[in-house]
Every structure is written in structure tokens, then in C-alpha cells.
Amino acid sequence: MKTAREIKTRQPRALRLSGIRFDRDRMNNLFCFTLCLFLLFAAIPVFSPTVSHADADAVGEFYKTLEDGTMYQCNDCFVYIPTVCSEDTACCVHFAGGTGGWLLRQDYAMRYISEYDPNAIFIWYKNSGLYERDARVRRTADLLHTLASQTGADLSDIVITSSSNGGYTALYAASHLESEYSIETEKVVILDMGNVWAKTEFIVSQEEANEMIDMGTTVYHFGRKGETFTMKGAQQFASYGVPLVEVVCKGAGHDQITNDAFSFGVFSWAIDDPSVPLRDDWYTPANVNF
């Protein structure tokens, strides 16, 4: 009588299952090929230069795909990530104006990021964070750390832009991101400082300004002709020794100064080369405090 082992070894290689003939070698080859394809495609997101939707929780909820990147939305800000990022991808952090509620609409942010601005990572806060500046600095540092790890961009050196009351937070953030997190800011752009520099209690101190001096920060203020250096708050800040550049605007209205600068591509200008006038027919040559 044959043993079970003998029966098993003498079974024909061709098996019959539900009337369909299967070849064991072919099935093994097909399985190996399928497994290789699965492992190949599963590995692709690891090398992707952008944040996949599965990884987006750390930077916000997926909001919309734009022509050259993707926008995510958080409670306090929008985050825009270009489709292709590298170590040299720039980053701009923008502090919008206002002091209280969420003042910025999604379409407003998307328009200027997608139509007028460079291949850069953006963190666009919905308001100034004027009364929560320390929390805003921590939040910014956390976002920059997450974005750097997920995109491969070197975000240890950024550009900060702001509108109205966001200008006070912009100066504060530039100083404290460097002193607390070693994140440097070469350029700070302020579009018509809120109440025309009148909130002197929110002007950074000499010690905080020294952080900006040490890392070579230059501050560009867009305002009305002759107004920047006649304001007490601006004079106080300029006395600290941080280079303060006055960009005189043809448009005189508070909101118009911001809207004009957005439309002319102020973010690209700030990231690239602010020594070149943003637009010759709209802005006079810049004046520097020293």
C-alpha cells in the first residue's frame, strides 16, 4: 500500500480545479511578478517630493489641487506645497492682517499663490496672531519642521511677509524663530503696518532686534510717501539698527497697498531679489534708514 508521501510526490504537476488546467510553475512565476509590482508601486510614495494626501494630517486637511501644487487647510492657516520640491525650494510665511476672527477666504489665498507667485512652499495665516505671538511662533516652527521632513526642502532659512497688524507678528516671529528654533529670516516684508506703527507696545525690543541684526535680516515696509520714518513706532524700531527699507506706494489706501502688492507679485519679489523695484511705475526707489 502506498504511503501518503509517495502519493504526494507522484501527483501530476498539472492540476485540475473546476475543469480549468493550472500549471504550478506558471502560477509561481505569476505570483512573483505580481508581488514585485506591488512592492515597486508601494515604494513610490516614499520618494515622492510632495506630501501625499495620506500624510497630509500633519499639515492640514486636503483642500484643493491647483495647477502647480496642492493646498491644505488648517484651522489657523493654509499650507501650499508645490508639486515638485527639492532641497532648494523656498518657503514664505505670511501673516495676514486683523486681530480677531478669521478674515481670509480660501479663494483669496489661492488666487495670489497660484497666479502670481513662485514655486515655493507657503504657510498663509488667516489672521495676524497679534495676541498669541508665542503660540504662533511655535506653530510656525512645528509646521516648518513637518514640511521639511515630508518634502525634503531645507526650511532653515525662510522669508516672512505680512499685512497690516500682521507686521508686528512678523517682526516678533523673525526674532524668536531664530533664537528658539535656529530658523533664520533674511527678509521681512510688511504691507502698511497696522495703525501705521502706532501699536508701540507690540514693537520688538532691542534684544529681539539684535537677533535680526545677527542673522542679517532686512525689513521692507510698504507705505505712503514720507510716512514710514515719521511714525513713532517705526522710529523706535529703526533706532535698534535693523535695516528698515521704505517702499513708497503710489496707491495710498490701506487695503490698496496690500492688494496692489499681491497683484504685482510681492511674494516672488521678496523671495527672489528685493533690491530690484517691484514695479517701476508704481513704487519709488526705496529709502533706507541708514
Q: How would you summarize the topology of this molecule?
A:
Layout: H1 4-9, E1 14-17, E2 20-23, H2 24-43, E3 61-65, E4 69-73, E5 77-82, E6 90-95, H3 106-116, E7 120-125, H4 133-151, E8 157-163, H5 166-181, E9 184-191, H6 206-214, E10 218-223, H7 232-238, E11 244-248, H8 254-263, H9 266-271, E12 287-288
Helix pairs in contact: 4-5, 5-6
Outline the structure in words.
This protein is an alpha/beta fold. It folds into two domains: 42 residues, no CATH class; 239 residues, Alpha/Beta hydrolase fold, catalytic domain (Rossmann fold, 3-Layer(aba) Sandwich), CATH 3.40.50.1820. It has nine helices and twelve strands. The strands form two sheets. It has a ten-stranded mixed sheet, sandwiched between helices. Strands 1-2 form a two-stranded antiparallel ribbon. Strand 6, helix 3 and strand 7 form a beta-alpha-beta unit. It starts with a helix and ends with a strand. The relative contact order is 0.10. The N terminus is likely disordered.
